[in-house]
């Protein structure tokens, strides 16, 4: 059996996070490059070789949430916070003492919708995760039941600040609100109902 370091979280982070960050740079450069076709073909061959090497051993399906032996969750494939997911910015969510949450994130060319602006689906994705994180209780996961998003103004690509907080609980339902803002003000607001499924709460 393979010898695993005691701290799998730190080991995994040290090994995979730099790779993920390199692939994020690759995604950005793939979108914005203006080099000639010979260079594009050369890079494609290198990328194909990298994918071939990484594919020599894969988990059978998606990554899921793997746990360290001391119980720490590693949602590293997650589409928005995944440490091993190059399409995740990634979002790093901070929690205040009152349970509200916030994040600061840099969103570049890979997240474009209208020219120069953040794609509305990405705004909704960030808000879904933020509102879900504030609604979350340990060992009582809450699923997004309904998420309502109001796009007040186009959000320019670049640095975005997000916040979310719980406004009330009603049985298995938790109601949360949040917003995204930048130097131009509050751009997107959201409210959501998060439901703890019967039998799993
Ligand atoms: C640190 C970790 C941070 C984690 C953050 C996570 C963020 C990401 C969150 C997601 O993206 S989750 C993925 C997207 N969501 C889903 O896939 C959910 C799919 N839907 C379901 O699984 C079920 O429909 C659901 C769990 C939402 C509800 O099923 P139940 O069978 O438990 O609901 P039930 O019919 O028993 O109703 C319970 C209560 O919830 C209400 N309800 C049910 N579905 C609802 C809904 N969709 N929206 C709002 N309220 C809903 C329902 O009216 C009722 O209210 P009352 O108690 O007042 O009668």
Please give the structural blueprint:
Elements: H1 8-32, H2 37-54, E1 66-67, E2 73-74, E3 94-95, E4 101-107, H3 120-135, E5 143-151, E6 158-170, E7 173-182, E8 185-195
Antiparallel strand pairs: 1-2, 3-4, 4-6, 5-8, 6-7, 7-8
Bound molecules: decanoyl-CoA.
List its traits:
29% helix; 28% strand; 201 residues; binds decanoyl-CoA; Thiol Ester Dehydrase, Chain A; alpha+beta; globular; six-stranded antiparallel β-sheet; 2 domains
* Beta-strand percentage range: 25-35%
In helices, the fraction of residues equals: 25-40%
Instruction: Name the CATH superfamily classification of the largest domain.
Output: Hotdog Thioesterase
* Straight-line distance between termini: 36 Å
Task: Provide the CATH architecture of the largest domain.
Answer: Roll
Strand order of the largest sheet: 3-4-6-7-8-5
DSSP strand count = 8
Structure description:
The protein is of the alpha+beta class and 201 residues long. It has two domains: 1-89, no CATH class; 91-195, Roll (Thiol Ester Dehydrase, Chain A), CATH 3.10.129.10. The protein is 29% helix and 28% strand. It has helices at 8-32, 37-54, 120-135; strands at residues 66-67, 73-74, 94-95, 101-107, 143-151, 158-170, 173-182, 185-195. The strands form two sheets. It has a six-stranded antiparallel β-sheet, covered by helices on one side. The protein has a two-stranded antiparallel sheet with strand order 1-2. A hairpin with a 5-residue loop joins strand 1 (66-67) and strand 2 (73-74). It is globular and about 60 Å long. The model has no long low-confidence stretch (mean pLDDT 94). Bound molecules: decanoyl-CoA. Residues 128-129, 132-133, 136, 143-146, 171-173, 193, 195, 197-198 line the site of decanoyl-CoA.
